[in-house]
Write a structure and sequence with these properties.
The complex is a heterodimer of chains A (about 625) and B (about 300).
Chain A: H1 2-5, H2 13-21, E1 25-32, H3 38-48, H4 54-67, H5 84-89, E2 96-101, E3 106-111, H6 119-126, E4 131-137, H7 144-155, E5 160-166, H8 175-189, E6 196-201, H9 225-231, E7 244-246, E8 249-251, E9 259-263, E10 268-270, E11 274-277, E12 283-290, E13 298-300, E14 304-309, E15 320-322, E16 329-340, E17 351-355, E18 360-372, E19 379-380, E20 390-403, E21 414-418, E22 425-434, H10 436-440, H11 450-456, E23 462-467, H12 474-487, E24 492-496, H13 497-500, H14 512-531, E25 535-539, H15 545-553, E26 560-566, H16 569-575, H17 580-585, E27 607-610, H18 616-629
Parallel strand pairs in A: 1-3, 1-4, 4-5, 5-6, 23-25, 23-26, 24-25, 26-27
Antiparallel strand pairs in A: 2-3, 7-15, 8-9, 9-14, 10-13, 11-12, 11-15, 12-14, 16-20, 16-22, 17-18, 17-21, 18-19, 18-20, 21-22
Helix pairs in contact in A: 12-18, 14-15
Chain B: H1 5-23, E1 27-30, H2 35-48, E2 57-60, H3 67-80, E3 84-87, H4 90-94, H5 99-123, E4 127-129, E5 146-149, E6 177-180, H6 188-198, E7 209-216, E8 219-222, E9 237-242, E10 255-256, H7 262-270, H8 289-295
Helix pairs in contact in B: 1-2, 6-7
Classes of the chains: A alpha/beta (about 625), B alpha/beta (about 300).
C-alpha cells in the first residue's frame, strides 16, 4: 500500500479512495507439486511490489537465518508458511491468504499446499478463485500433482490458468526446456475448458519475469506474471443470468415485518418483479428490498439484502427465490462430480449430511458411476472413493433440493458432504444435472396412515435393533423376545440378518460397501413394517455406527430402540456356534467382524445387555420390560 | 451495479453473520472494544436489520484495559440497547495476576485465554464471532472463516475442515464450538476506510492527543492508572501519540502521530512502513506465539 502513497495530495484523499474502491478484484491461487516454489513466488511478488512492512522484513530476515532453505539469502517462503509445523518441515500444509493491490487491480492470493495429502486445502483455495498459477519445476517437468491441480482447477470452474515454469535459472534459462514443458501442458490442459492458458518462464527466487522482464531470457517476449495478472480479461458480472437468492433466514422483528434475508447469487431483482419460490412453486411480487442503508429499488449479484413480498407465503431457510421465467431445478436425485477429502472412504449407501449454501438434509450416494484417473483423465470403475479421489456419482436426498448445474452457477450448484458422527466435511460436490426418475416418481399420499394401522393393533410401533458380534446371542435373544411379545398379544415381525441374506440381500457380500447396503435395506424394510403398525425385531451385527445412526434417523423419536448385545469377542470366539471364528482366525474368511473387519461399539444404546453370566430368557425379559415402560 | 471493494467485503460479512445466526444454537460476539470490534458490531447490526442482532456481546475483561475503552464500551451498549456480558477470570483476580507482576505471557494466558474459555463454558456458547483478520499475522492468514474448536477449545491447525465456496459446515457436537471471523478478508486499511465511509464511532485513543507516556524497552507505554510503577530513571512525559491497536494498557505501545481524525489516520496508513502488530508486546514473546496461543484457546 505504501507504494501508492506518495502521489496523494491531502485534498484529494476522498477522490483517491473512491478510485481505489472501483478497482476490479482478481482472486487467484498458486498450486502445483511440492517444492515447485509456490510460497517463494508469492513472497517474491509481495516483496517486489513493496508490500512487506519493515518489521515483517526484519522478522523474515531473522527467520531466514534460522529456518531458511535459501542459504544466506532471504527465504521468501517463510513469509507465507505461518504454521510451526510448516516452518519445521519446510512445507506448506494449509492455504495462506494474502491481499495486495497494484495500480490496476486488487488481488487476493491463496497459496496452496503441494502435497497430495493436503488436496482438500488446495481445493479450499481453488473454490473461490478466478485464476490458478500452476507452478512446475523446470528440471522436473509436468508431474502427477501438476495434472491433478490443473484438473481440480478446471473442475471447480477456474477460467484462467498460468503455467509458471519456475527455477528456469537452474536449467540455464533454456528456451527448449520451457517450450517442451509448455507444449506438454497444453496437450492435456487444452481439453479442460480454460478460457486462457499462459505459460511464463521464471525464477521466483531471483525475480525473473515475476514483476519485471528478465535480462537472462531475451527469447521470451511475453508478459511478466504480474503484467498478466493485471490484464487477463475478467469475466465481469453477467447480470443477464437468471435471478437467484438462497434464503438464509426469515427476519421477523415484529408482527408487521416479514423479510427473507440472503445474498443474491446471480442476476438482478427490482421492486415490482415477479418471483417464484423454488420448492413450492408459489409466486409473488417483490414489495421492497430492505437494507440498513435504506430500501433499494433493485439489487444484483453479490448484494446482501432482505426481500419483502406482496403475499404471505410460506418460505423458510434453504429455499431459493428465483425468476419465474427461468426456475432452478428441484429434485431429490441428481448426478454430481465429487471430490473426496476424508481418510474414511466414501461408500455408496452410507448416509451423509448434504449441505448446499443454505440447505441441509440427509443424503446417500446411490451409485458411483466411475472414478476419474487424474493422470489420463480416463473413467474407471470403482466401488468407493478414497481420500483425494474424484468421481461422478448419483446422489439421493431425503427431501428435494433447489439447485442449478455448477457450470451454470457456482453458488447454487455446489454442495459439501458432512459425516454424521464426526461432523467433518468429507467431500465436496458439483452438480451436473437432475436424474429423470426423480422428476417422474412422486410421493403418493395414502389415506390410511401409520397411526390408523397401529391403533387397530392396539400397540405403538417400534423397532428393536439388536447389534453385537457374530455369536453374541442376538438371534437366540430375539427369538425368545418375539415369543414373549407374541404371547402378550403384540403383533411382531423378526428380521434376522442371516435370513435376509438368503433373499432380499442375496446379491450382497461382506465388504464394507456391501455391509452398508445390507443395513440400509434392512432399515428400510423395518420402516415399512413400523408403518404397517408392527413391532419389528432386527437381529444384525450392524458393525458401523454410521449405519446404525442412518437407520435410527429413518424412525420417529423414541421408535428406534438400539439394543447392544454385549458379549466379549473372546467369549463369541469360544462359543463359535457356526465355526466361523475358526475359519476367520485361520485366514480363510475375509471381512469377518472382530477379526478382519471392525466393530464400532454403540456409544449410547437404549438398552445395554451385558450377557456374561445371564440366561437368554432373562435378557429377553429385560427388553420386553423396557418396551412395556416406554 | 457491480459491487465496490468495501461493498463486497460488507456483503461477505453480512452473509457470514446470517449463516451463524441461522444454524447455531447459542451464538455470541466477542467484543474487545477495538476498531475491529466496532466494525464487526456495525456489520452485525446491518446483517439483521430491521431486527437486532440475535446474540449478546461478550467482553472478557482482563481488568487492565484503558479506562477510555471501558467508558466507550458502556456508552456503546447503552446507546444501541444491546445485551453485554462482562466476564472476569476471578481465579486470576484472586491470585493478583497482572502484566507488571507476572509478565505479558502469563497475564494474557490467565486473564484472556482462560477467561474466554471459562465464559464460553459457563454460558454454553457454541459459536463465537471474533474480529481477527488474516492480514494481521501469519498463522491467522492460515485460519478458516469458520474455525472449529474441540471441547477443550483447542485449534488444530494441521487438520482444519475444508472450507469450500461460501458453503460453511456449521455442525458441532455438544461441547465443541466454532469461532467465526467475518472480517477474515479485510485489511487494516479496509477497516479504516470503512470506518471513514460509514462514520463508525471508535475509542478516542485511536486519535492523536497529548498523553502521559513512559518509554520502556523502546516502547511508549501510557500511564493509565496508579498501578503502573515508574522505575528509577524513567520519567512520565506528555507526548502527542495515538494507538494503532488497543489491548491491555501496559502491553500496548503508542505511536508518535498527529493524526487526529479518521482521514488523517487513513493518510497515515497509506504511508505506513510497519505492521500494526508492531505495537503488541504479546506477539513478540517468540515466533509462532500467536499460533501457540490459539491452540490453547485464545482467539
Amino acid at each position: 500500500m505504501a507504494v501508492l502513497a506518495s502521489s496523494i495530495a491531502t485534498d484529494t484523499l476522498q477522490d483517491y479512495l473512491a478510485e481505489q474502491e472501483e478497482k476490479p478484484l482478481l482472486r487467484f491461487i498458486t498450486c502445483g507439486s511440492v517444492d515447485d516454489g509456490k510460497s517463494t513466488l508469492i513472497g517474491r511478488l509481495l516483496y517486489d511490489t513493496k508490500l512487506i512492512f519493515d518489521d515483517q522484513l526484519a522478522t523474515l530476515e531473522r527467520d531466514s537465518a534460522r529456518h531458511g532453505t535459501a542459504g544466506e539469502a532471504i527465504d521468501f517462503a517463510l513469509l507465507l508458511d505461518g504454521l510451526e509445523a510448516e516452518r519445521e518441515q519446510g512445507i506448506t500444509i494449509d492455504v495462506a491468504y494474502r491481499y495486495f493491490a497494484t495500480a490496476e487491480r486488487r488481488f487476493i492470493v491463496a497459496d496452496s499446499p503441494g502435497h497430495e495429502e493436503y488436496t482438500r486445502n488446495m481445493a479450499t483455495g481453488a473454490s473461490t478463485a478466478d485464476l490458478a498459477v500452476v507452478l512446475v519445476d523446470a528440471r522436473q517437468g509436468i508431474l502427477r500433482q501438476t495434472r491433478r491441480h490443473a484438473f481440480i482447477a478446471s473442475l471447480l470452474g477456474i477460467r484462467h490458468i498460468v503455467l509458471a515454469v519456475n527455477k528456469i535459472d537452474l536449467v540455464g534459462y533454456d528456451e527448449a526446456v520451457f517450450a517442451e514443458i509448455a507444449k506438454e501442458f497444453r496437450a492435456f490442459a487444452g481439453g479442460l475448458g480454460f478460457a486462457t492458458i499462459a505459460p511464463i518462464p521464471m525464477s521466483a527466487r531471483h525475480g525473473d519475469n515475476v514483476t519485471a522482464n528478465s535480462a537472462h531470457m531475451p527469447w521470451y517476449t511475453g508478459e511478466t506474471l504480474l503484467g498478466h495478472l493485471e490484464t487477463v480479461p475478467l469475466a465481469g458480472q453477467d447480470l443477464g443470468r437468471p435471478f437467484r437468492l438462497p434464503v438464509q433466514l426469515v427476519t421477523r422483528p415484529d408482527q408487521d415485518f416479514r423479510g427473507f434475508a440472503g445474498q443474491v447469487a446471480s442476476g438482478r431483482i427490482a421492486v415490482g418483479d415477479d418471483i417464484i419460490v423454488a420448492k413450492s412453486g408459489r409466486t409473488s411480487r417483490v414489495k421492497a428490498i430492505v437494507t440498513a442503508d435504506g430500501d433499494l429499488p433493485a439489487a444484483s449479484e453479490g448484494h446482501a439484502v432482505t426481500i419483502v413480498l406482496e403475499d404471505e407465503i410460506d418460505i423458510s431457510r434453504g429455499d431459493v427465490l428465483a425468476t419465474p421465467r427461468d426456475r432452478p431445478q428441484l429434485a431429490d436425485q441428481f448426478m454430481a462430480h465429487l471430490v473426496w477429502f476424508s481418510a474414511e472412504p466414501m461408500m455408496p449407501g452410507r448416509s451423509y449430511i448434504l449441505r448446499t449454501e443454505t440447505d441441509s438434509m440427509s443424503a446417500t450416494v446411490t451409485a458411483l458411476k466411475y472414478q476419474i484417473d487424474i493422470n489420463s483423465f480416463s473413467h474407471e470403475a470403482a466401488k468407493s472413493l478414497h481420500m483425494n479421489e474424484i468421481g461422478v456419482c448419483n446422489i439421493a436426498t431425503q427431501s428435494p433440493v433447489a439447485f442449478d448445474s455448477y457450470k451454470a452457477n457456482r453458488t447454487t450448484g455446489n454442495f459439501v458432504l458432512i459425516d454424521r458422527l464426526t461432523n467433518a466435511t468429507v467431500g465436496a460436490g458439483m452438480i451436473d444435472h437432475p436424474l429423470r426418475r426423480a422428476t417422474n416418481v412422486q410421493w403418493q399420499a395414502l389415506d390410511i396412515d401409520r397411526n390408523a394401522r397401529a391403533a387397530m393393533k392396539h400397540q405403538k410401533p417400534a423397532v428393536l435393533w439388536l447389534t453385537g458380534y457374530s455369536g453374541a446371542g442376538k438371534s437366540t435373544i430375539a427369538n425368545m423376545l418375539e415369543k414373549l411379545l407374541h404371547a402378550s398379544g403384540r403383533h411382531t415381525y423378526m428380521l434376522d440378518g442371516d435370513n435376509v441374506r438368503h433373499g432380499l440381500n442375496r446379491d450382497l457380500g461382506f465388504t464394507p460397501e456391501d455391509r452398508v447396503e445390507n443395513i440400509r435395506r434392512i432399515a428400510e424394510v423395518a420402516r415399512l413394517m413400523t408403518q404397517a403398525g408392527l413391532i419389528v425385531i432386527v437381529s444384525a451385527i450392524s458393525p458401523f455406527r454410521s449405519e446404525r445412526r442412518m437407520a435410527r434417523d429413518l424412525f420417529l423419536d423414541g421408535e428406534f430402540i438400539e439394543v447392544f448385545v454385549d458379549t466379549s469377542l473372546e467369549e463369541c470366539a469360544r462359543r463359535d456356534p457356526k465355526g466361523l471364528y475358526k475359519k476367520a482366525l485361520a485366514g480363510d474368511l475375509e471381512n469377518f467382524t472382530g477379526i478382519s473387519s471392525p466393530y464400532e461399539q454403540p456409544e449410547a444404546p437404549e438398552i445395554h445387555l451385558k450377557t456374561a453370566g445371564r440366561e437368554p430368557g432373562e435378557l429377553a425379559t429385560q427388553i420386553a420390560e423396557y418396551l412395556g415402560k416406554h | 451495479m457491480s459491487l465496490t471493494h468495501l461493498q463486497r467485503l460488507e456483503a461477505e460479512a453480512i452473509h457470514i453473520f446470517r449463516e451463524v445466526a441461522a444454524t447455531s444454537s447459542r451464538p455470541v460476539m466477542l467484543y474487545s472494544i477495538g476498531k475491529d470490534s466496532s466494525v464487526m458490531l456495525h456489520l452485525a447490526r446491518k446483517a439483521f436489520y430491521p431486527a437486532k442482532p440475535p446474540f449478546p456481546l461478550l467482553h472478557v475483561d482482563t481488568t487492565w484495559k484503558f479506562r477510555e475503552m471501558i467508558a466507550f464500551r458502556d456508552q456503546t451498549v447503552s446507546d444501541l440497547g444491546l445485551e453485554l456480558i462482562v466476564h472476569v477470570n476471578l481465579d486470576g483476580l484472586e491470585q493478583n495476576i497482572g502484566p507488571f507482576t507476572h509478565g505479558s505471557s502469563i497475564h494474557t494466558h490467565v486473564m484472556k485465554t482462560l477467561g474466554l474459555r471459562q465464559a464460553l463454558d459457563k454460558y454454553g456458547f457454541d459459536a463465537a464471532f471474533g474480529g481477527a483478520r488474516r492480514d494481521e499475522e501469519k498463522s491467522r492468514a492460515k485460519e478458516r472463516i469458520f474455525s472449529f474448536r474441540n471441547a477443550q477449545h483447542a485449534w488444530d491447525p494441521k487438520n482444519q475442515r475444508p472450507e469450500m465456496w461460501k458453503t460453511y459446515n456449521t455442525r458441532v457436537a455438544p461441547g465443541e464450538s466454532i469461532r467465526i471471523f467475518p472480517l477474515s478478508n479485510w485489511t487494516e486499511l479496509d477497516i479504516w476506510q470503512y470506518i471513514l465511509k460509514e462514520d463508525i464511532p471508535i475509542v478516542p485513543l485511536y486519535f492523536a492527543d497529548k498523553r502521559p507516556i513512559v518509554e520502556r524497552d523502546g516502547m511508549m507505554i501510557m500511564v493509565d492508572d496508579e498501578r503502573m510503577q515508574i522505575a528509577e530513571g524513567e520519567k512520565v512525559e506528555d507526548r502527542l501519540v495515538r494507538f494503532r491497536t488497543l489491548g491491555c494498557y501496559p502491553l500496548t505501545a503508542a505511536i508518535e502521530s498527529s493524526a487526529a481524525t479518521v482521514p488523517d489516520i487513513v493518510r497515515e496508513m497509506l504511508t505506513a512502513r510497519t505492521s500494526e502488530r508492531q505495537g503488541r508486546l504479546i506477539d513478540k514473546d517468540e515466533a509462532g506465539s500467536m499460533e501457540k496461543k490459539k491452540r490453547e484457546g485464545y482467539f
